[in-house]
Automatic annotation (TrEMBL):
InterPro entries: NagB/RpiA_transferase-like (IPR037171), RNA_pol_sigma_r3/r4-like (IPR013324), SorC_transcr_regulators (IPR051054), Sugar-bd_dom_put (IPR007324). Belongs to the SorC transcriptional regulatory family. The keyword Transcription regulation applies. The keyword Nucleotide-binding does not apply. This is Sugar-binding domain-containing protein. Keywords: DNA-binding, Transcription, Transcription regulation. Residues 63-307 form the Sugar-binding domain. Pfam families: Sugar-bind (PF04198). SUPFAM superfamilies: NagB/RpiA/CoA transferase-like, Sigma3 and sigma4 domains of RNA polymerase sigma factors.
Length: 312
């Protein structure tokens, strides 16, 4: 176990004990770690400075003001900014963002999950929850290729369900299917998920970059000449929907896009977007303008860049 994984384990155990109110015996049962080891990890949390009366990082007035300014710029329902710990040797964004995702999902029952690096890392940093048999997690998109773990949405959904001790449903279709080769079985699976997407009451998505300098990361269309031609006009993507600079979506001829329809996504009561990186600022701004999410979780630097862009 490396330093980052060890620190995050201590953080999650401390949060389970001090914030979530679980006893050491319950935590041991949830995590599969022995009770004596749980006790030692809790003690280490104090020694490492993770536990200071409450297991959280204080939100500064500056960050709260930045959240309000960002929400105003985006027209989003809310913005959550993860404070940067400039003294830390490790990036604390995803462990803390995972905790905020958990807060946002409270009270929801049918939850759609997207793909990408951010969603992959969020799923790895979720806390182990008590049984939530009423919860069901659904993929919002098909998978792509067989190498990139960030695009295997079934695995990400599975990890959400595992941490929540909830149910999961799987789509098992590629994100792009050639229209000339679609089978009746594939059509049936896709149509069944159309109905499931319509009943979602929450979703968690990432926002990708697919601009001029970025490679086309989706195997199924990576060499498509039409997409390559338009690549310079793409600002970013949400669920592999390519967002053009004029606000429209690029549709690739000859392919069926297997993902929750944009109009359906916009009707979901709460859509949480998790995205960070100044290189994603334009894509986040475009997605907000298109009303693809209601809550944004990001970091300070990205927030400041989005505000700078909006003031142009």
């Amino acid at each position: 176990m490396n330093i980052l994984e060890d620190t995050m384990l201590v953080y999650r155990i401390a949060k389970n004990y001090y914030i979530d109110g679980y006893g050491q015996k319950e935590i041991a049962k949830m995590t599969g770690i022995s009770r004596p080891q749980i006790s030692r990890l809790i003690k280490r949390g104090q020694e490492m400075g993770i536990v200071k009366i409450e297991v959280s990082l204080p939100e500064t007035i500056e960050v709260k003001e930045l959240e309000m300014e960002l929400a105003s710029c985006l027209g989003a329902g809310s913005s959550i900014i993860i404070p940067s710990d400039r003294t830390a040797d490790i990036d604390n964004f995803f462990p803390l963002a995972a905790g905020r995702v958990e807060e946002c999902l409270q009270g929801h029952h049918y939850i759609g999950i997207g793909w990408g690096h951010s969603l992959y890392e969020i799923s790895r940093n979720l806390s182990f929850q008590e049984n939530h048999t009423e919860l069901v997690f659904y993929p919002l998109i098909g998978c792509s290729g067989s190498i990139n773990p960030y695009l295997q949405v079934g695995s990400i959904v599975d990890r959400f369900a595992e941490r929540y001790r909830a149910k999961a449903r799987y789509l098992n279709l590629p994100v792009y299917l050639r229209e000339s080769n679609i089978s009746r079985d594939e059509v049936g699976k896709w149509q069944a998920f159309q109905k499931r997407w319509e009943r979602l009451d929450a979703a968690v998505i990432g926002i990708g970059t697919l601009g001029m300098k970025d490679p086309i990361y989706i195997d199924e269309v990576s060499k498509d000449p039409y997409l390559i031609k338009w690549k310079k006009d793409i600002e970013g993507d949400v669920l592999a929907y390519m967002m053009l600079k004029d606000g429209s979506i690029l549709h690739i001829p000859g392919y069926q896009h297997i993902a929750c329809p944009i109009d359906t996504l916009k009707k979901i009561p709460r859509v949480i977007a998790v995205a960070k990186g100044v290189n994603k600022a334009e894509a986040i701004y475009r997605a907000a303008a298109n009303k693809y999410f209601s809550t944004l979780i990001t970091d300070e630097n990205t927030a400041k860049e989005i505000i700078r862009l909006s003031s142009k």
